[in-house]
Amino acid sequence: MCGFITVLNYGSDEFINEKELKQMTDTIIHRGPDSEGYYLDENIAIGFRRLSFFDLENGSQPLFYDNNRYIISYNGEIYNHIELREKLKEKGYSFATNSDTEVILALYKYKGKELLRDLRGMFSFVIYDTLEKTVFIARDFFGIKPLFYYKTEDKLYLASEKKSILENEKNRGVNKTALQHYLTYQYVPGDMTILDSFYEMPPGSYAEFKIGEEIEPIRYWEAEFKPSYISRKNAKNDIIDVLRDSVKVHMRSDVPVGCFLSGGVDSTMIAALSKEVNPDIKTFTVGFEREGFSEIDFAKESADSIGVENISKVITPEEFMEELPNIVWHLDDPVADPALVPLYFLAKLARKSVKAVLSGEGADELFGGYTIYREPISLDLFRKIPKALHNPIRGVSKVMPKGMKGKSFIERGTTPLVERFYGNAKIFTEKEKSRFLKTYSRNIKYTDITGPIYQRFNEYDDITKMMEIDIHTWLRGDILVKADRMTMANSLELRVPFLDRKVFEIASKVGSDMRIAENTTKYVLREAAKEVVKTGASTRRKLGFPVPIRHWLKDEMHDWAIETIKYSDIDEYIDKKYIYKLLEDHCNNVDDNSRKIWTVLIFAIWHNIYM
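RESULT FIELD:
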């Protein structure tokens, strides 16, 4: 696991020098505190930081192959690299190291871009062919590992984190379209970033180009659910088998590997399967003092039931606020998911004992774990009402007093799914943004992001459509961003067995009737968990790192929030008076505005750091 910065010379008379390359690389030392590596010639500059897991693999980078024809900078783990190496040896390929990095290069020489279909793991990499002067870049199937790019008149930057690029390129500006979407989604969706002209390589994509040419990402894989007939019993058994195999390969390491444990079905199942590989595995949990905002008791119950050690920590409001600027710096882009803060402390806790952890990210997106996925079933009544009557009925709901029983139900039931559902986080509406966002444009709509996805999967049932929306937006923009940045901030590698190609092959066959059934979510996964975990975790409702900001913004964090907004230089974008009023109404219990306030606070902190 590592981080890299790669710069291509697009005609610069004054290309990157050694000092600049080292400064850019040192910015991401947290991604690889164990070693560093550099390569620099007239065409390419590579800086690399490494977090080492295998003492004997000799996987230092930049790595060369085929008499130095190919050079790679790579971040990730290929879990089937041992099997791939043996197949390549049979075809006459030789290896100087035991690393997965060299396997990628050998496979690229053998198959070219087709190598991507053989890889099982998480990755982003840049391969430079010194003979042909061509570049090949790629990102893993789900977008677990990041890859950013930025082009100037005479340089192209490719990096694991944008802050490496910003170390050398001082010209920057806020992408107003990205900001407007951020205020809806609580993260920047799609391939754009919060900074103008900075882009993220899409998941499951690659690009081939010569130095001097533009990057044109090409999709080689897409997460698409294709339900097929399969019995509940067979689905359950297939899930157990494929997860057991996935956990086994994700546990490959010469250093201790631990598990994050919340006490819910996802993490408990991963921990139980991990114990089969390593009986002495350690698990880690964090929580808060306030009642209802801690998973520690649930986690300890699960840990005891499967017979593993559990190490926990309680987070205070004071350390929460103290660490927040550092956390936002690590994010690169603002992400206003409060759960990323306890995740940061969880990674910090785990890093004292291990270098890598397994976690349950992806289970909800693959198996239907969010409560909102039950909404189409609860609104089924409205399918029987002629669509011509939906608008008049919705008009009645709008004149109903706020909070009146049935108002929300009628509004949701008469609003088409494409307008009603755009992901797990719904922060500000278009009407609200138009009131306080000074750069607001009516030509930019949240449906610009979700509309093409709905169109692509138009023939699916509503539950599957919602899952496609989340796996193409929420998973890549929120879940995996906070997972990667918060763990890497603590030089800890996060491995996610659910987000494995083979696991997805099974999950994609499961129909909605096995995801949402028996009045619960991810039904078939819970049934599989009962065979592995003898605890209440298989039936426990989802908590998802609850954070008491709703309470803290009224008390412990109130003055801090006022000061943060007051002294932030965001007046060009945000009408602060509107935000102060949101906080006032929140404190007076007029509305729960905590998530809206938090979204603006994170942007304000980000702006203070990066602009």
